[in-house]
Amino acid sequence: MVALLALLTERGQLPLAYLAEALDASAATIRRDVALLAAQGLLERTHGGARPMKGNRELPVRLRDGRNQESKRRIARTVASLIPHGKHAIGLTGGTTTAEVLRALRSRDDLTIITNSLSIGLEAAEQGQARVLIAGGVLRSSSLELVGSLAESTMKLVNVGTAVIGADGVSATGGLTTHDEIEARTNYAMIERAQRVIVAVDSSKIGNRTLAKMADVTDFQVLVTDSGAPEDELEAFRDAGIEVHVVDAGRGDEGPVSGGRGNSRHALGFEGS
To answer: For position 26, what pLDDT does the model report?
Structure first.
């Protein structure tokens, strides 16, 4: 059912026959899944098809965990390897890939974790991270992130050594985008306070643009993604001076398969206030 919702989220209204073929499922299974998801308010049924709920093209965070999970773990391990040794303050936006970054850093006990994500903040505390700062704000139920002026004010009071940013869309021409304008502003407040910004996204986000612009391509220095990303998009990032790291998107436990070139701003981190 997650794959069904993802297809509708990415492509809009689709006929049941197309969904059955794309998901390699029977027509009866698709009809049943559509009925169940409609009853939960996660999609709208149409004559012979289905479409995302009006005004909501964002897949709820509780349904994202299983998508591209192995790629996200590999991306996270590469991001973790880029974090300097010693005391360092890391900003993490919400999202399943940034959550994997936190898990990849579980062996570190010298970090300050700064986030506006409730789920990431709680997991960081459970890991026993030395310091965890969760910015206050208005809760977005779809992403479990705290956003708005209060969260932005909190971000302005801290110094971030490395910000690890997730996004719903990343392109060399459109920059970083997400589904919600308020969330975009809150995340940009974290980006502004960071000495170095790493964008961590799986290849399904590369080349996409969603509703709200979060930052320009000039606002981040490093991109970590997987090998499913279009090569022309990756080359455009490199041409823009971005340090690009690509991990294998296939199955197995291999690490990163290629590093990038570009002008990254490496800097020492700060402890968050």
So the answer is: 92
- Sign of the alpha-carbon torsion through 230, 242, 164, 110: positive
Q: Is the pTM of this model over 0.90?
A: no
Q: 254 and 217, same structural domain?
A: yes
C-alpha torsion sign, points 236, 242, 243, 247: negative
**Residue positions counted in the chain:** 273
**Domain of residue 160, CATH code:** 3.40.50.1360
CA-based torsion, 17, 70, 228, 10: positive or negative: positive
Judging by beta carbons within 10 Å of its beta carbon (0-12, 13-18, 19+), is residue 121 exposed, middle or buried? buried
Residue 65: C-alpha distances to residues 14, 59, 71, 102, 136 (Å): 23, 11, 12, 14, 24
Query: For residue 207, which phi and psi values (nearest 5 degrees)?
Result: 90, -5
Task: Calculate mean pLDDT across residues 158-162.
Answer: 97
- Which residue is listed with tokens 């291999």? 254
User: What does the mean pLDDT of the chain come to?
Assistant: 85
Both structure tokens of 170: 């990343």
Considering the domain architecture, whether residues 171 and 113 belong to the same structural domain is answered as yes
* Distance from C-alpha of 224 to C-alpha of 244, rounded to nearest angstrom: 6
Q: Are 14 and 5 in contact (CB under 8 A)?
A: no
Number of domains in the chain: 2
Same domain? For 52 and 100 the reply is no
Could you give phi then psi for residue 95, rounded to 5 degrees?
130, 160
**Domain stops at, among 31, 57, 83:** 57
Residues paired with residue 26 on neighbouring β-strands, in sequence order = none
Query: What's the confidence (pLDDT) of residue 271?
Result: 37
Residue entry with tokens 């705290």: 146
d(CA 232, CA 96): 26
Domain that holds residue 207: 69-258
